[in-house]
Structures are given as C-alpha cells and as structure tokens.
C-alpha cells in the first residue's frame, strides 16, 4: 500500500499576510468579516486564479469566521473562480445590450478559436470562457473582461482575433493586488 501524504495546507505569503493585515485594520475588530471580499481577491490571486475549498477555509480562519460564511460569498459572486482556470479568464457579457450587438456570435467564435466551451478551459490551458452579466460598458458592446482589462466593441471576427492574439502574447502569472496598478474599486476602497 502506497503511503499517503496529506496535501499541504495553503498558507498566505508574507506579502499577502501584510496586505491582509493592512486591510483588516480598516475595520473594527468585531467587523473583520467586512474584509471578506478583498481577502478572497487576494486569495484568488495568490493561489493560481481560483479559490479551492481549502483556500476558502484559510480565508475563514484568517478572518475568524465560519467557513460557511466564506462559501456563501464565494459561490455568489461570479468573479471568484471555484475550479482551476486557464492563464486568461475571458468573462463574456451576455446581458441584453451585448446580446443585441452579437455576444452570441462572439461566444461561438471564441469557442471555435479556443476549443473550449463556456465554463471550460481550452486544451492548451490558455483560456477559460465564462459568461457574466452586464459589465457596465454597454455603450461599447459586446464586451469581454480579462482581469482588470476590458476588450470592447468585439463585434467583428477581426476584433476578437486581435484580442486573443494580444492575450496569447502575454506571459501571465497571477498579479497580486498590491502589485497591480488600477486595482478594482473593491480593493482600493476596502
Ligand atoms: S450589457 Fe454588456 S456591458 Fe452592459
């Protein structure tokens, strides 16, 4: 019988711990749960672009709250990935204005080019396709969000091809919140 070793419990890096401490310090001690959203962003950036149950448990432990309180939030918001993802997560808006401007065709084109269906990662591991609701850039529909970057007016195959080609040229590693310029509002204000 093969000896079994328990997988190592995830741990935040020292830089992440310092950032977490800074964020938590903004709230009264009894309200540390208010830091949950930014901590999940940090966890997602630290642990490969998704938050496994073990990572969610780590967030709960860090905030001294029950794991279920983290699961409820992580499963509610589409910006948290609950399974492993590719190097680039393409969030395709499918709400009315984007749909009227061709998001169905855009999605079909992306599926053909990447070999991944919505909800899947491409065989080369480069792209994960997700459908999301309004990205608040309706005037530039159809829109795809990749991390903090918006790709707009993707209503021609050429525009989609250019986006993929740009992304393929980027060497991606998770960008940690404290390294990023142009942080999401949730991280700037919390
Ligand atoms: S409907 Fe797509 S950005 Fe608003």
From TrEMBL:
InterPro entries the UniProt entry points to: NuoE-like, NuoE_dom, NuoE_N, Thioredoxin-like_sf
Family (UniProt): Belongs to the complex I 24 kDa subunit family.
SUPFAM superfamilies for this protein: Thioredoxin-like
Top-rank taxon: Bacteria
Positions in coiled-coil regions: none
Cofactor(s) required for function per UniProt: [2Fe-2S] cluster
Record's protein name: NADH-quinone oxidoreductase subunit E
Pfam families in UniProt: 2Fe-2S_thioredx (PF01257)
Keyword annotations from UniProtKB, A to Z: 2Fe-2S, Iron, Iron-sulfur, Metal-binding
Bilayer-spanning residue ranges: none
UniProt xrefs under Gene3D superfamilies: Glutaredoxin, NADH-quinone oxidoreductase subunit E
